[in-house]
Design a protein that fits this description.
CATH architecture of the largest domain: 3-Layer(aba) Sandwich
Number of strands: 14
Number of domains: 2
Distance between the termini: 15 Å
CATH class of the largest domain: Alpha Beta
Strand order of the largest sheet: 4-3-5-7-8-6
Shape: globular
Structural class: alpha/beta
CATH topology of the largest domain: Rossmann fold
Order of helices and strands: EEEHEHEEHEEHEHEEHEEHEH
Strand content: 15-25%
Oligomer: single chain
């Protein structure tokens, strides 16, 4: 562990794929500067999760990691322990590295999502569609259950009872689910003209559309929703909340 100006200096980072424009690195760099900390935050852009143990082995003074697409589930076998909530969810987005070098997995996506969606919820928001079935969607489903909001996944190929395929969706199904959450990467910069293939004509002013994407600020998914009168929210606040929760865990 380095010591500079009497302060402990640690390394933190983000595990993911194609993460050059990540929120986390800029956020924590700013945070460290504001708090007068000399810690560093690095992006670990992995072509495959198999190189994860090398990152742990070769990075000195590493204290904590964030995990993003597509490794929130794939990283689990490499961890020594899962926090109770992360175990229930089945996905990890935060890793704490103990003094003894043990890797403990947590999920702060659920906290960030709940804090960011709550101000928008109205009494008629009783049913939700979750677009995508990756690691992030599991945290969303966990939170919706906690909020007593009925939910169904939407995937390319239906594999469970609580799922629709995109082909199943029609205007009636969309209009009957007043919350629609995009957990897919569709619409992320630079592919800003992409959006999930759903019947947008079923969206009304009773809808709340939430997109986990934050770059661009307003995705095509949110733009079409807004044109149909829906309330919209992007993933920026969620990321801020989950980052602060991760910082608490690391410290």
């Amino acid at each position: 562990m380095d010591k500079k100006q009497g302060k402990r200096v640690y390394k933190f980072g983000l595990i993911g794929k194609d993460i050059e424009y990540s929120f986390s690195r800029a956020y924590f760099k700013k945070k460290f500067e504001a708090e007068g900390l000399l810690h560093t935050y690095e992006n670990f852009d992995l072509k495959t999760i198999d190189v994860f143990p090398q990152i742990i082995k070769n990075t000195e003074h590493l204290k904590g990691l964030n995990v993003t697409i597509p490794y929130k589930e794939a990283v689990i076998p490499f961890l020594d322990k899962l926090n109770k909530k992360a175990k229930k969810i089945g996905a990890v987005n935060t890793i704490k590295i103990t003094k003894k070098g043990k890797l403990i997995g947590y999920n702060t996506d659920c906290y960030g999502f709940q804090k960011s969606i709550k101000p928008f919820l109205k009494p008629h928001h009783k049913k939700a569609l979750i677009l995508g079935t990756g690691g992030a969607s599991k945290a969303i489903a966990f939170t919706l259950k906690k909020l007593n909001i009925e939910h169904s996944y939407v995937s390319r190929q239906k594999s469970k009872k609580d799922e629709f395929s995109y082909d199943d969706l029609d205007e009636t199904i969309v209009s009957n689910h007043q919350i629609i959450i995009n957990c897919t990467p569709l619409g992320t910069y630079p592919n800003i003209n992409e959006c999930p293939d759903i019947p947008y004509d079923g969206i009304t002013n009773q809808h709340l559309l939430f997109d986990l994407i934050y770059n661009p600020e307003q995705t095509k998914f949110l733009t079409i929703g807004k044109l149909n009168g829906a309330t919209i929210c992007n993933g920026h606040k969620m990321l801020e909340f989950q980052a602060e929760k991760a910082w608490e865990i690391w410290n």
